[in-house]
């Protein structure tokens, strides 16, 4: 049964821990309830904010409309063939729980994406990725409901138009659909990705040799790395990586490399090189910076943090200062990965 509440605090529902309020709030546990909410006369013209785990938003003010918390659960095997197994998960399923579900059953492809905060429904919106793997590599399709018409639509891989930390849902279809379930294509025979970041080094520290390599070992290595570098949102408010890693022309990278020999770079093809935003921010002197309760994490400069009572505006002001500083020093623009509301 639907329970629409008014004047609800969003502080427990965003990992930054920002104290903002929703004029109206509702949690939906299935697609039918979602459609019912969208068709209610009193709310048809209300602005709507869709929340999953609240791990990729920065709330800069109260939301004067309806916040819809998508809590659709369920993980099941939808079909399989000789090489793949297809898993469908509700949009409200915790992402890490889905990864562990697959790893424990030997379904390969998601292991590098372990411990990413958030829910399944939010994952394709920004094409989440980590340690050399992006969601689009295991994505098959999704279902979504149109906010205005309540029409249900299935989106294929091509229709999602994935890019680096983005999709059609952050561009042409922004604010038009609510994702209700996602289907993933996992491999029965694993393809290991161990060259990115400190995965290989961590596997060695764990005593995992090449002949004992498994998706479970890779998942455990990724979890160990993330826990050592990234703050726990239950302890310090944050939304993980605040900025995207910028991609710049190779000619610009070569010039910067001459000036800064330690600058890391990852060739992306088409004479484009991706560089770590965290390295740029750290070199610009921001690592460990704090102003009031807004700060840059002491172990990972890519993460902005709320030490207690920072407002969204204070975090956003800090983000803009970091962007300006990086651009002044390197001539490189870094863009937020987090959605500013």
TrEMBL record:
Origin: domain of life: Bacteria
Coiled-coil ranges from the UniProt annotation: none
Molecular function GO labels: FAD binding; UDP-N-acetylmuramate dehydrogenase activity
Subcellular location: Cytoplasm
InterPro entries: FAD-bd_PCMH, FAD-bd_PCMH-like_sf, FAD-bd_PCMH_sub1, FAD-bd_PCMH_sub2, MurB, MurB_C, MurB_C_sf, Oxid_FAD_bind_N
PROSITE patterns: FAD_PCMH
Start and end residues of each FAD-binding PCMH-type domain: 18-189
Keywords in alphabetical order: Cell cycle, Cell division, Cell shape, Cell wall biogenesis/degradation, Cytoplasm, FAD, Flavoprotein, NADP, Oxidoreductase, Peptidoglycan synthesis
Protein name as annotated: UDP-N-acetylenolpyruvoylglucosamine reductase
Organism in which the protein naturally occurs: Spirosoma pollinicola
Organism phylogeny: Bacteria, Pseudomonadati, Bacteroidota, Cytophagia, Cytophagales
Name of the encoding gene: murB
